[in-house]
Specification:
- The chain has about 160 residues and is an all-alpha fold.
- The protein has one domain.
- Helices cover about 80% and strands about 0% of the residues.
- The protein contains four helices and no strands.
- The longest helix is centred in the C-terminal third of the chain and has 39 residues.
- It is elongated.
- Keywords: Cytoplasm, Iron, Metal-binding.
- GO terms for molecular function: metal ion binding.
- It holds the Pfam family Hemerythrin.
- It comes from Sedimentitalea arenosa.
């Protein structure tokens, strides 16, 4: 998808975000949290252990589910109808959630030493960090598409309606 999204394509973009990113995040996070918990248990005492990562990922599961449901049930249907007065309010809430998600990504990076595996990492640890890297790339692209491509179309339209 290009970065310039005509309003006519916003409907298609919302569906792309739901099928490509929302569905994928729902698949990615639970096994990542389970792997993190396993590593925190099995490797207790390891100096490189990402202590608290499983808790962070479990918290993100809940927060992201709420965020994605708000998009799927409120914001995206409004966008598909061409927007409405006041649409900038749910968009502002989504942007604030994205800021929180970016903070959580920074926390993941901090806990994992920027996803640097310790020498002799087990297969689960390797799979966890590979999965986290994929999740972070997906999440950052998801947020970029919304923040930089989708939302500005409706924020500008809403500002012009005033």
């Amino acid at each position: 998808m290009s970065d310039a999204v005509p309003t006519d394509d916003a409907c298609e973009l919302t569906r792309h975000i739901e099928t490509r990113y929302h569905a994928r995040h729902r698949q990615q996070l639970p096994p990542l949290a389970a792997m993190a918990e396993k590593i925190e248990t099995v490797h207790a005492g390891d100096d490189h252990l990402p202590i608290g990562l499983s808790d962070l990922l479990r918290r993100m599961i809940g927060e992201m589910e709420v965020h994605m449901k708000k998009e799927e049930l409120i914001l995206f249907p409004a966008i598909r109808k061409g927007g409405s007065p006041g649409i900038e309010n749910p968009i502002a809430a989504m942007r604030a959630d994205h800021d929180d998600h970016a903070t959580e990504v920074a926390e993941i990076r901090q806990l994992t030493g920027n996803l640097a595996l310790p020498d002799g990492a087990c297969r689960t640890w390797i799979a966890l960090y590979a999965g986290l890297e994929e999740f972070i790339i997906d999440l950052e692209e998801h947020m970029r598409l919304e923040n930089d491509v989708l939302f500005p179309v409706f924020e500008t339209r809403s500002a012009n309606d005033v």
